[in-house]
């Protein structure tokens, strides 16, 4: 496993890449409303990324046809934007986006409610988000990678939600996906030791029902097998000599 340790110059470029992505996410969040299509979100996100002088890193990545992954309700990740897919009052929508700034990638995901949503949907979103923050309490130099995984799992388990095991987080830098893989579920082995300069995309994907997922015929969209709703929360994180730095939160 070749985990890259970023230099000070690389960390500054990562910080800027992630800062710009946080702007994109904020503007997309503010635009969400019932009646808009998932294609509308993709067009907006793509335009924002390019106006900031960056490149959408998802576009054409392994053949993915859009710049923003837009996933509704039981869609876990990698939903393909479509002008006929319309957001409805009460839906939840997960937006996964990334960009390239001067050769350095950023990656972050958020799940939002569309208009007024149910208490159960709000709880799923909030718990998924908090599981990320529970995980990064362990994202400190000297700890091990799977300390993060185990903390996420331990927080989610009492809620009875399903933690997706088919998809995991990842390292990030000059490539969108780098070593190491970062599970969101408990591990027996400790994994590699965390060192300052590591940049990690940590991204719990949590289902209201069972953990099982399946891929649709488009070979991209991942949905829950039991039809339960799913939430996704992701940030790009820097391991430091002290507390972890969440690069995509501004």
Give a short synopsis of this structure.
By secondary structure, the protein is of the alpha+beta class. The chain contains 4 helices and 15 strands. The strands form 4 sheets. The chain has a 5-stranded antiparallel β-sheet. Strands 1, 2, 4 and 5 form a 4-stranded antiparallel β-sheet that branches. Strands 3-12-11 form a 3-stranded antiparallel β-sheet, with no helix packed on it.
Biggest β-sheet strands, sense, barrel:
5 strands, antiparallel
Low-pLDDT runs of 5+ residues are none
Mean pLDDT: 98
Number of strands: 15
Order of helices and strands: HHEEEEEHHEEEEEEEEEE
CATH superfamily: Creatinase/methionine aminopeptidase superfamily
- CATH class category: Alpha Beta
Report the total helices: 4
**Fraction of residues in helices?**
25-40%
CATH architecture: Alpha-Beta Complex
CATH topology: Creatine Amidinohydrolase
Please give a structural write-up.
It is a single chain. With 250 residues, the protein is an alpha+beta fold. The chain has one domain: Creatine Amidinohydrolase. It has 4 helices and 15 strands. The protein has helices at 8-31, 38-51, 119-136, 145-156; strands spanning 55-56, 69-72, 75-77, 92-101, 104-113, 162-163, 169-171, 178-182, 199-202, 205-207, 213-215, 222-224, 230-232, 235-238, 245-246.
Mind sketching the topology for me?
Layout: H1 8-31, H2 38-51, E1 55-56, E2 69-72, E3 75-77, E4 92-101, E5 104-113, H3 119-136, H4 145-156, E6 162-163, E7 169-171, E8 178-182, E9 199-202, E10 205-207, E11 213-215, E12 222-224, E13 230-232, E14 235-238, E15 245-246
Antiparallel strand pairs: 1-4, 2-4, 3-12, 4-5, 6-10, 7-8, 7-9, 9-14, 10-13, 11-12, 14-15
Helix pairs in contact: 1-2, 3-4
């Amino acid at each position: 496993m070749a985990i890259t340790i970023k230099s000070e110059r690389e960390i500054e470029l990562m910080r800027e890449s992630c800062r710009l992505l946080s702007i994109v996410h904020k503007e997309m969040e503010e635009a969400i409303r019932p009646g808009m299509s998932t294609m509308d979100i993709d067009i907006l996100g793509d335009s924002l990324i390019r106006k900031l002088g960056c490149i959408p890193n998802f576009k054409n990545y392994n053949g993915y046809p859009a710049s923003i992954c837009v996933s509704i309700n039981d869609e876990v990740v990698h939903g393909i934007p479509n002008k006929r897919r319309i957001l409805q009052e009460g839906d939840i929508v997960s937006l996964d986006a990334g960009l390239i700034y001067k050769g350095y990638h950023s990656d972050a995901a958020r799940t939002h409610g569309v208009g007024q949503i149910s208490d159960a949907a709000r709880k799923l979103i909030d718990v998924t988000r908090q599981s990320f923050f529970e995980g990064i309490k362990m994202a400190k130099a000297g700890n091990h990678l799977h300390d993060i995984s185990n903390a996420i799992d331990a927080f989610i388990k009492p809620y009875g939600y399903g933690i997706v095991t088919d998809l995991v987080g990842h390292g990030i830098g000059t490539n969108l996906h780098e070593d190491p893989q970062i599970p969101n579920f408990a591990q027996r082995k400790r994994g590699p030791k965390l060192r300052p300069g590591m940049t990690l995309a940590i991204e719990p994907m949590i289902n209201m029902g069972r953990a099982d997922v399946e891929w649709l015929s488009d070979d991209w969209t991942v949905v829950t097998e039991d039809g339960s709703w799913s939430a996704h929360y992701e940030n790009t994180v820097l391991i430091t000599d002290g507390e972890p730095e969440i690069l995509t939160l501004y």
